[in-house]
Fold:
Amino acid sequence: MVYLAFFTIDFRAFIFLLVAAFLFYIWRLVRGKIDAPALYYSRLESLQHAGPSLKSWAADFPNLLKKAALGCLVLAFLDPQIVATPKQESLTKHKVDPKEGLAIYFLLDQSGSMAMQVVLEDAQGLDVQFVSKAELLKRFTKKFLADRPQDMIGIVQFARVPQIMSPLTLDHDSLQSRLDSFNVIQNKEYDGTGIGYAIYKTAHIIASTRYFAQELEKQGKPAYDIKGAIMIVVTDGFQSPNPEDKDSRLRTIGLQEAAEYAKSQGIKLYVINIDPLIKNEEFAPQRHLMERVSELTGGKFFTVDNPSDLSKVYATIDKLEKTQLPQESAVQSLPPERLVSFYPYLIGLGLLGLFAGLLLESTFLRSIP
Structure:
């Protein structure tokens, strides 16, 4: 902690002492003119070269101690202090965890097609990069996380089956690091695009989280109040389960059924397809299905023509689902001031000097009139 020190005194006491000193000076001046002491000598030559001797210094030492004691007592009357205040840079920040907001789950496609390279350009077209679709999701999803500190966010990656990368959490820094481990499926045995299964499973997770929070509230324990829930599904394809799962009803659950369950839990679906080919006429049935299930839940379907447009889609969702709650950001608290007052020490020194002066002039340095 860095402090700035300031020396202060009692201003009213200082003014009082100035007035008292001025009146004392006037009194001494008037008294000296009325009754000025004098000592008459017939010759002064013998006194011109006379200087103070050791005996004279010793004889005057008790008076010096008394004067020093008086000075200490006068300073104590002024109450001198050193006040140390923390610098602005030293303000401590205490993070206040929000108590309510949205529950947001990202469902990120990690099927083999997400390894395909795309061209990513900046707004001016000057910086051109070749990145995989999976890397594209990482970059823009991280920015979205940074803009939603109030909300609980989780991440689910899916291909043949969905996997929870992170449950709902307010620790968005950990989400950022978890996203770094997001990779495309390498083993074809686990490949596929089970969007319906991912939506259905994530909806169950959100429902369980709500139930757990309600149970905590019943027990009088603090719990995060989920005011609304959304899923943001990002894929480059459409519902296409792994052929080996044809006999598994859960793994082949359709988008319509999954969306209906999500709607029953009050969850909105935002589906983003980042492959421009989805606009081709041959994929019209799949595109219309994704539009229909999104609108069924009160959400929306988006397509991305240019990879960099994914950030614009995220920005649109951010505006549509802006938390209408007061933002609880970091609270700055000012550490207490450090106060050091010198008047007790000055009083002690003054009394000690006065006692020493009186003791010396009555014992070792006693003078005889």
